[in-house]
Write a structure and sequence with these properties.
heterodimer; A: alpha+beta; Ubiquitin-like (UB roll); five-stranded mixed sheet; two-stranded antiparallel sheet; 17% helix; 30% strand; B: Cytidine Deaminase, domain 2; six-stranded mixed sheet; 3 helices; globular
């Protein structure tokens, strides 16, 4: 089973510079645990105690996983997961 | 140093003015590793707020994929401050996650004057840089 996971620039230190890595799992949660077993520390940048971190966008194919159940969103062979840190900021 | 065409800077300023008092935000894309801003892309501020901005997540996916397809990267990430100075705030610094980008801040707090400044933000450290404005032929207009 292979799911392509596209990694943003700022997280490539966890993947040895790779823009894209492969993983497996039936849900986003399982997939992230699988990736973390080979890229230690990556999961922690994406997940906190309450689930997917607020200022990280995770997409499954063309959709934001927030609308697909977040960590419990089902994934299957051939899916592409894209991670993009949110671009945000403000006055303070 | 940020080198940018007058026309692109004018588009950034016009966007900031049009969205005032909400914060405006966007990207200027350019060929990967060129450090040359070329393609202006105004983004929707999903927060629609006078004190906070955030790129809409689906729009960000579309724009980032488009840049990927064109072998571009975000050379400039800009946003406006509508009541404070054109300097990165604490939240601006914590959410600066494109290490190669020039972070351009625009302040629209004065109705008759728009402040534009550019910064690099790396590992939580802000460094201001000079902005070199060029005309259509690439000649320098002002710094």
């Amino acid at each position: 089973m292979a799911i392509e996971v596209r990694i943003p620039t700022i997280l490539r230190t966890f993947t040895g510079g790779a823009k894209s890595v492969e993983g497996s799992g039936n849900t986003i949660e399982a997939l992230l645990a699988d990736l973390d077993s080979r890229h230690a520390g990556l999961r922690d940048r994406l997940v906190d105690d309450s689930g997917l971190r607020r200022f990280v966008n995770v997409y499954l194919n063309d959709e934001d996983v927030r609308f697909l159940g977040g960590l419990s969103a089902p994934v299957k062979d051939g899916d592409t997961v894209t991670v993009l840190p949110a671009v945000a900021g403000g006055m303070r | 140093m940020l080198t940018i065409a007058r026309e692109l800077l004018d588009q950034v300023i016009a966007h900031a003015r049009a969205d005032h008092p909400d914060e405006a935000c966007g990207v200027i894309a350019g060929p990967a590793a060129s450090d040359s801003p070329q393609r202006f892309v105004a983004m929707t501020n999903a927060e629609r707020s006078p004190t906070f901005y955030r790129f809409d997540s689906m729009e960000q996916l579309r724009v980032w994929r488009e840049m990927d397809d064109k072998e571009e990267e975000p050379i400039v990430i800009y946003h406006s401050h509508t009541a404070t100075e054109a300097y990165p705030s604490r939240t601006d610094i914590s959410y600066a996650t494109e290490p190669g980008a020039h972070y351009v801040l625009v302040s629209t707090r004065e109705p008759d004057d728009t402040e534009v400044r550019s910064f690099r933000i790396l590992d939580g450290v802000v460094t201001e840089e000079q902005v070199r404005v060029t005309d259509r032929t690439g000649g320098m207009i002002e710094t």
